[in-house]
Amino acid sequence: MNRLATVALTALAPISWGSTYAVATELLPPDRPLFTGVMRALPAGLLLTALSRRIPKGEWWWKSAVLGALNIGAFFPLLFLAAYRLPGGVAAVLGSAGPLFVVGLAALVLGERASLRTVLAAVTGALGVSMVVLTAAAQLDLVGIIAGVVSSASMAAGTVMTKRWGRPDGVGPLAMTGWQLTAGGLIIIPIAALLEGAPPALDGKAFLGYGYMMLINTGTAYWLWFRGIGKLTATSVTLLGPLSPLTAAVIGWAALGQALSPVQLVGMAIAFGATVAGQLFAARAAARATAGAGAPTPEPFSSAEKTDRNISMDLTAEPVRR
To answer: Degrees (nearest 5) of the Cα angle 184, 226, 290?
Structure first.
């Protein structure tokens, strides 16, 4: 699979996440964000782990727990705290700063040196998002700001460490996604029980909403996201992040009757243009690195052939030969 197809498939993850707000407000019980986090992560994680028929071994028990905490278990509660303490626009802008965290962490941990153009693309993307989601009435809250910043940093660290640790031999992205979602969901359960109490009663709409969240918005989306991290640079993947608030704005306009002002439309164009530009810059940098290195030694799970083979392993019941 060529790079463009990989980027397009990975982009489906943040596009799917952009539907979270609409689904939550229209179908799910109100004021239960942590319960929603559990329902998103844990059933999806158990399902993907069952489909892959693989469980962690050795050091991958604690590595999966760490990645699950960074990408899910800490990220979800902090994100919801920021959303409750801040206007949605401010929380979205803090989230759009994630690519900048990844750029810095990837340089320190992975040796991925981002060009000035890539950094500018990340900054421009955050600027475009702010034009879409910020309003003049937005007010700031210190706790909410800290939670929003830490949630972005947590997801950024999870993205970088997912790339850094790779996967065990013979284990595909399906199993890795299942392990992380399961660990993250288990981490959120006691927090949800402490802060929200017993689970709410669910009606037909709630079951529909949670089913979508589990299968599409979380299980499939995170599988595509982690698969993309394996094939692309961490910086390239995270630069797709602005597609999430842009999708939320489009859904709000098309399905919920929310108006878009000229400033928001300009901001959407800027953020989308920055996302495309960031991918072009990353592609050129990867091409230069490949040309300069001649025939480079493949990194763990970065080969398309190996990844496709591992996916096949995940979807069969045959034992994996070590």
So the answer is: 150
